[in-house]
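Hi F.,

I've been meaning to write this up properly since the lab meeting, where we talked about keeping a consistent format for the predictions we share between groups. The idea is simple: the sequence comes first, exactly as it goes in, then the structure tokens exactly as they come out, then a line or two of notes. No screenshots and no reformatting. I'm using this chain as the first example so we have something concrete to point to.
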Amino acid sequence: GMPPEVASRVMEPFFTTKDEGQGTGLGLSMVYGFVKQSGGTVRIYSEVGEGTTVRLYFPASNEFENDLQAVKSRAIDKGGSETILVVEDKQDVAVVARMFLENAGYRILSAASGRE
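Output, unedited:
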């Protein structure tokens, strides 16, 4: 977490607690600018020795609901007799890819590497 004197300045451009050359201090100021431009606000909750939480609040919009309905209304082509080889060295990613493709109707072969 950050002490109050640091937390109060983290949205300032180029503010950093890092040594020279270790960071530009633009990250949170860019986030702040984007959120403000979007009509939202940023809240920082920080306690030294405990951690920091940065929350971004955006205004509600009906556009998302309209886009979501448009996507849901489109027909999704399902696989038929196709077989897909999923090659992924990260098991958690491979499992998700396999589940997604199997749910779409494809037969899946899996490998953890090109050699396999």
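Notes:
Residues 71 and 104 are 16 Å apart (CA to CA).
The first helix runs from residue 4 to 7.

If this format works for you, I'll send the rest the same way.

G.
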